[in-house]
Amino acid sequence: MFKQIPLGPLQTNAYVLYNDQKEAVIFDPGGDGPALISWLKQQQLKPLAILLTHAHFDHIGAVDDVRDAFDCPVYIHQKEANWLENPTLNGSAFFPGENVTAKQANILLGNEKKLDIGPFTFTLRYTPGHSPGSTSYYYKPESVVFSGDALFQQGIGRTDLPGGNHTQLLESIHNQLLTCPEETVVASGHGALTTIGAEMANNPFLHGFPS
């Protein structure tokens, strides 16, 4: 089971994946830390980890709140190891309002193909282009991929931010995401849920790109 929870100034989708034993993994807690913590406690969930698809500011705003409240480690790709503490790299320096920072991640990901968090096993799909360390997490038992800002319903991530690369993003989507089963739910960083099949058929950004 998973819950989509829009958080923070850009209503970035956080996701909470959990099982019947109330164990949970949190993806991209983007803001509103006290509200997210309150919901997790109301549901009596036990977060085992925070998995970050990437380190842009709108995905990390509640990282420290949740990490401190539940004493759970934070994972991110090593290419964005220093982004959490750096408002210029995470983009908050260019957005109206306060700079957003978080303490360094506890665990850095490299090129692992698999990640075990308690009872949850994820296939890691490295999807750079929106940012250098963008990582999507495929969870086969729920047939869902947590794609961050790589792929959206009829859209793709922007590539005009530091480290962005449009061609690289399209390659990532075609080689790492569209190779998931077509019924796979795409849990994006913004907007509604979609499926791989729907995006293959209807996403205008993906048509005409060499497969």
TrEMBL record:
Organism domain of life: Bacteria
GO-annotated molecular function: hydrolase activity; metal ion binding
Source species taxonomy: Bacteria, Bacillati, Bacillota, Bacilli, Bacillales
Residues annotated as domain Metallo-beta-lactamase: 11-190
Keyword Repressor included in the entry's annotation: no
Reported cofactor(s): Zn(2+)
Protein name according to UniProt: Glyoxylase, beta-lactamase superfamily II
Sorted UniProt keywords: Hydrolase, Metal-binding, Zinc
CDD domains the record matches: metallo-hydrolase-like_MBL-fold
